[in-house]
Design goal:
The protein has 311 residues and is an all-alpha fold. The chain has twelve helices and three strands, in the order αβαααβαααβααααα.
């Protein structure tokens, strides 16, 4: 059932978010702002962390890698969506569609694993503080980043290996602004029930597994913090709140899509927008606004540039 033999679809038609020209202009203005802010915000976090020696710790090393993934996620579909607002017939090639599916699941899978690594970092820092520097060394952090990317890519390849060879022989309209895997599978000229179950199992296992690991980790951490009463615990609680907020906002739409992946409602399209366009903005906003160390490093970097301009 090879793609080269049976598939006659060379491109897919993306129906986008709306047919209204006025709404498309409105969406363009809003999402352009979100996109630029997201990319610049995450670049700013990477620059701040790499330029400040006080942020040379495992938590910030993992945070800078999270920002890098968010930059990648911002660019897999959003630039095309923004360009398509000015195109009446929105299309994407078969190869481009498969590339979007691969990139999305690679970045999402990697981010899930990296969030688990960040939770483990906070668990060691708060529950085993005396052993923190010994356990959370740079070598382990690099291993965590490597594993997160490896799991994300393997997760994506496992989807793509079956999707590429599906027979697409006619229907080619995808009711979204990018190639969403469940919507693409539904266009295949065959009974896709088994494929749907495989997709649900594959994606569901990694998302629910990571989410449960995060819930357990942060529950133990919060109990530990609650038993202490000090300024250090207050700072730890502030950091944890930022982590937990990102986890909830990231995994909420993700789990929703994997629980009901092939039953689409009109609100799903806008949840997809939040998940692909707005989620990468969470990292710079939440961590920058809630983290005193990052804000302090940001002020120092700004003052350094102001002084250099004066001189």
């Amino acid at each position: 059932m090879a793609h080269t033999n049976q598939s006659v679809v060379s491109e897919f038609v993306l129906l986008g978010l709306s047919n209204s020209w006025e709404l498309q202009l409105f969406f363009f203005a809003i999402f352009s702002l979100v996109y630029v802010t997201s990319v610049l915000g995450n670049i700013m976090i990477i620059v701040i962390i790499s330029s400040d020696s006080h942020l040379n710790s495992p938590m910030y090393f993992l945070l800078s890698n999270l920002s890098f993934i968010d930059i990648c996620q911002s660019n897999f579909a959003t630039p095309k969506m923004l360009a398509d607002f000015f195109v009446e017939h929105k299309t994407i090639s078969f190869e481009g569609c498969m590339a979007q599916i691969f990139l999305l699941h690679s970045f999402v899978g990697s981010e899930m694993m990296l969030l688990v690594a960040m939770a483990y970092d906070r668990f060691i820092a708060i529950c085993r503080p005396l052993h923190y520097s010994t356990i959370m060394n740079r070598r382990l952090c690099i291993i965590f980043v490597f594993i997160s990317w490896a799991v994300g890519i393997l997760h994506s390849v496992s989807h793509l290996a079956f999707t590429v060879d599906l027979p697409f022989c006619g229907p080619n309209e995808v009711d979204s602004f990018f190639c969403d895997l469940p919507l693409v599978i539904e266009l295949a000229c065959m009974d896709t029930y088994e494929m749907e179950i495989m997709t649900l199992t594959n994606s569901g296992l990694i998302s629910l597994g990571c989410f449960l690991a995060l819930i357990i980790s942060y529950t133990i951490i919060l109990i530990t913090v609650h038993r202490r009463s000090s300024s250090g615990s207050s700072k730890a609680l502030s950091t944890l709140t930022a982590h937990i907020t990102v986890v909830i906002l990231f995994f909420g739409p993700c789990i929703y899509f994997y629980i009901w992946p092939f039953s689409r409602l009109s609100v799903d399209k806008f949840l997809s927008v939040f998940y692909t366009v707005c989620t990468p903005l969470l990292n710079p906003i939440i961590y920058s606004l809630r983290n005193e160390d990052v804000k302090s490093a940001m002020r120092k970097l700004r003052n350094r540039h102001v002084n250099s301009w004066k001189n």
